[in-house]
Protein: Pectinesterase inhibitor domain-containing protein
Amino acid sequence: MKTVQPISLAFSGIVIILLCTTITAQAADTKPIASGIILEACKNVSSDFFKVRFTHDFCVSTLQSDNRSTNAKDYRILALVAVDTMKSQATAATAKVDKLIQGATKDKTATRALGFCRVDYSGMVSTLEICHDIIQSFEIRKGNEGVTPFLLPGCIEKTTKDINDCADKTEFASISVGLMKEYEDLSMLANLSSSLLLLFITSPPPRGLGLDIPSD
Ligand SMILES: *[C@@H]1O[C@H](CO)[C@@H](O)[C@H](O)[C@H]1NC(C)=O
Ligand SMILES: *[C@@H]1O[C@H](CO)[C@@H](O)[C@H](O)[C@H]1NC(C)=O
Ligand SMILES: *[C@@H]1O[C@H](CO)[C@@H](O)[C@H](O)[C@H]1NC(C)=O
Structure:
């Protein structure tokens, strides 16, 4: 009988952390230096990998690929970058599903499963457009007007259903492998977006809500 000792589990955990740190440090040498607000946000949201399922590196490289991040004055702008990245990947995934449908005309099961994925992904694009607008125009509530802060991460969480629905529908069809990368990327981006929005609404000023109060 093989028993896994807690101590050896803890030890392999440490080794993994050390490995990750080394990989991150090496990668950092070849990339432009990320701005302070990106590093600060990514450090916070990627502190618990088993909960959020994306790495610090994924967070930094996603945010860094859009120059709005560099001059971001609050976490809301970073979340907007993540949401827009997710929207363009969902758009690309919809196009890929269309291509797969064209190639699967004789396979009824696959065609049907892909049809659900098209509905899921194109619906996700529309949802993310609404989320973008909500985040873009978010202001602190005055009285009972405007959206409540928790609607921000809540909006992104609606896409989780779409992501998982497509994965479930294609699981037993022969085409699931063709959409695996889309599934993984969209899941990570959904987690990154909602984590950044949660960070934004729970942070004290000046990085959180306080920044949005218009000064007069
Ligand atoms: C950001 O990058 C885009 C192209 O990706 C460019 O058109 C735009 O001028 C840049 N904005 C700033 C503020 O550097
Ligand atoms: C991240 O993704 C996992 C698996 O998809 C999910 O269980 C978890 O709730 C997500 N976390 C956040 C913060 O969205
Ligand atoms: C992340 O930020 C929140 C809000 O400012 C804070 O409460 C929390 O302790 C931070 N977590 C980490 C791991 O830095």
